[in-house]
Write a structure and sequence with these properties.
295 residues; alpha/beta; Rossmann fold; 2 domains; 9 helices; 7 strands
C-alpha cells in the first residue's frame, strides 16, 4: 500500500503545478488558412513570377531576370500576407494550484482484520507499514490505511500538498469533509501545522458507516468542487459500492469528461475469507440446566 501511495504521488503531483506568470509573444495570421494551403500559394506565386520572366523577350541583361523574379514573388507574397491580417499575439499564462481530493472509506467493513495466507505478501505489507507480520494481523483495514498515510512523516499527503491544494473526505453512506491543506501559491512554504492537523483528524477516524454509497459520495464531492480546478481524486476503499442511488461508474464518467483523474487504492486481502456454516446439529429436544450437549 505504501508503494502504491508513492506511485500515486509521482502521477498526481505534476498534474497542476503553480508558478509565476509567463508571457508568450508570437506573430500570427488571423485569417490564415491551413499550412499546406499557404505552401501551395507560395509555390504557385513563385512559379508565376518565374514564368513571366522566362516568357519575356531575351535582352542583354539576362542576369537581372532571376533577381526581378524573386522581387516580384516577394511583393506578391507580401500582398497576400497583408490580406491574411498579420498581428503580434501576446499571451499571459499563469498556472494555478489545483485541487486534489483524498476520499477515505470509513464503512464498517474497514474494521475487518485481514489474515493474508501468503506469508511473503504479509511480510511485504508489514515492512511497508513499518510493523511486524504478527502486529499486522491485529490491524484493521482502516488502521492499515492510517499507518500508510503517516509513513515517512506523512510523506504521501505532504507530496500532494507541495504542488496542490488538498482536501480530505471520509465516505460511507455519504461524504464528510475532514480537513484542508491549503497553499495560495506554489512558492509559499507548506505549513507543517496544517499537515499535522489533517493527520490528527485521520488518526481519530473510526469505521462506523453502515454502507458504502460510493456513487452518491462522489456525486456530492463533484457538487462541492464544481467551481474549482480539480486535478485528481484519490479513492481509498476496501470494496465495491453497496448502497446509495447513484452508480459509481456514471459519476466516474462525469469526472472523466471534466478531465479529472481518479486513482483507486484497494485495501484488504484480495482473496475473500471463507464463510462457515453449521450443516447439522443433533441434541435432545429438552435438556436441564448444566447438561453438556455434544453435536
Amino acid at each position: 500500500m505504501s508503494a502504491l501511495f508513492s506511485t500515486l504521488w509521482l502521477n498526481a503531483s505534476w498534474l497542476l503545478a503553480s508558478g509565476t506568470p509567463k508571457e508568450f509573444t508570437a506573430p500570427r495570421l488571423e485569417s490564415a488558412p491551413e499550412a499546406w494551403v499557404l505552401f501551395l500559394v507560395a509555390v504557385l506565386v513563385a512559379a508565376f513570377a518565374a514564368a513571366c520572366y522566362l516568357l519575356e523577350r531575351k535582352g542583354e541583361r539576362r542576369w537581372l531576370k532571376p533577381l526581378l523574379a524573386v522581387m516580384r514573388t516577394l511583393v506578391i507574397l507580401l500582398i497576400i500576407v497583408i490580406l491574411f491580417r498579420p498581428l503580434l499575439s501576446r499571451e499571459l499564462r499563469e498556472e494555478k494550484l489545483g485541487r486534489v481530493v483524498v476520499l477515505l472509506d470509513t464503512s464498517r467493513s474497514m474494521a475487518f482484520e485481514d489474515r493474508e495466507k501468503d506469508d511473503e505478501l504479509r511480510a511485504r505489507i508489514a515492512t511497508a507499514l513499518s510493523t511486524t507480520p504478527e502486529r499486522l494481523r491485529k490491524l484493521t483495514r482502516l488502521e492499515r490505511v492510517k499507518a500508510a498515510l503517516r509513513a515517512n512523516n506523512d510523506a504521501f499527503v505532504r507530496g500532494l500538498a507541495e504542488k496542490n491544494r488538498v482536501r480530505l473526505y471520509t465516505f460511507d453512506s455519504t461524504r464528510t469533509r475532514l480537513a484542508d491543506i491549503e497553499k495560495i501559491d506554489a512558492s509559499e512554504e507548506l505549513s507543517g501545522a496544517d499537515v499535522a492537523k489533517a493527520a490528527a483528524e485521520v488518526e481519530g477516524l473510526t469505521p462506523e458507516g453502515k454502507s458504502t454509497a460510493l456513487g452518491d459520495s462522489l456525486q456530492k464531492v463533484f457538487s462541492d468542487l464544481r467551481n474549482e480546478r480539480v486535478a485528481a481524486v484519490v479513492l481509498i476503499t476496501d470494496g465495491r459500492s453497496n448502497g446509495g442511488s447513484v452508480a459509481a461508474p456514471a459519476i466516474a464518467a462525469r469526472f472523466g469528461r471534466k478531465g479529472i483523474k481518479i486513482f483507486s487504492v484497494g485495501v484488504g486481502d484480495p482473496e475473500p475469507p471463507r464463510d462457515l456454516s453449521v450443516d447439522d446439529f443433533r441434541a435432545p429436544d429438552v435438556s436441564l440446566a448444566g447438561d453438556v450437549l455434544a453435536g
